[in-house]
Amino acid sequence: MVSRILASTITPLYRRGGSRIMFEYAIRTTAASGVAYRRHMSSERNVVQSPFGSVNIPEQNVTEYIFEGYEKYADKPAVTCGASKRSYTYGVTYEMVKRMARGLLSQKGCAMGKNDVLGLLLPNIPEFVPALHGGLLAGLSVTFANPLYTAEEVCRQFENAGVSAIVTLPMLLPVTEMFKSKVKHYKGTICIGGKHDLDKNIYGFEQFLKENHRSELPKIDCHKTAILPYSSGTTGLPKGVELSHFNLVANLAQGSHPAISKYYQPEYLDKKETILTIPPYFHIYGLNAILHSVLKSKNHIVSIP
Description:
Keywords: Peroxisome
Protein name: AMP-dependent synthetase/ligase domain-containing protein
Subcellular location: Peroxisome
Number of helices: 8
InterPro entries: AMP-binding_CS, AMP-dep_synth/lig_dom, ANL_N_sf
Structural class: alpha/beta
CATH class: Alpha Beta
Number of strands: 14
Number of domains: 1
Domain AMP-dependent synthetase/ligase: 71-295
């Protein structure tokens, strides 16, 4: 019995196998007995090698990776507010990170656990760094929203992410109060520039850090979800993206190659600059490619709220 091809109905079925993409084509044929399919397999290499060679990606959490070696620059400026001139050195910034982490975990603080999610509702201010990395060093996942979002947009994202505590500013407290009314197990609001109001489960950021909470910081799995940035919603409502500590560290390691960043060339290792940033930290580019890259290279970042 002889078959003949009726049409070139070729359907590629992609199967990833190791370093190869396998292309499996189903060619529709016909015979007296009806329609049949013949499968034809082909493969091609789909690996692109960097001209800069391989990059070592350490198994570290992103906070340790960024602040590694900070002691040498402990008295040098790390983050500054371009509007108020409020500024913190590397030594003070990392101390704030550790105090924030302990406060988030402490039973006298927010009593958060390893599966909890911290939400940041902040513009580009210096305190974004201890707020974010305090959460990460505590072993939490962190999400952040545009502070210009409507209350409904913030609540939708934070509900979707499973947020149980928020760091924000006094002017945005009404938004956190709305969110708090929608969730069952809310653990507290930390207000930068505000004061303690424990009846409302609100902690003033400065006092929160000064209380010197005692709690043991966990060992962090670098493959655990670190941050949950949300898309802009171009094809619908915003969607969360899970990025692990390893994802963030890998991206920073790539950007730290001397052929890409001048700050890792020998003549720049001890030469530090002041760098102005415009993109928001609640955007992944503003966060990892700018804020984290500047902190990793121990330069001085100035932001505009």
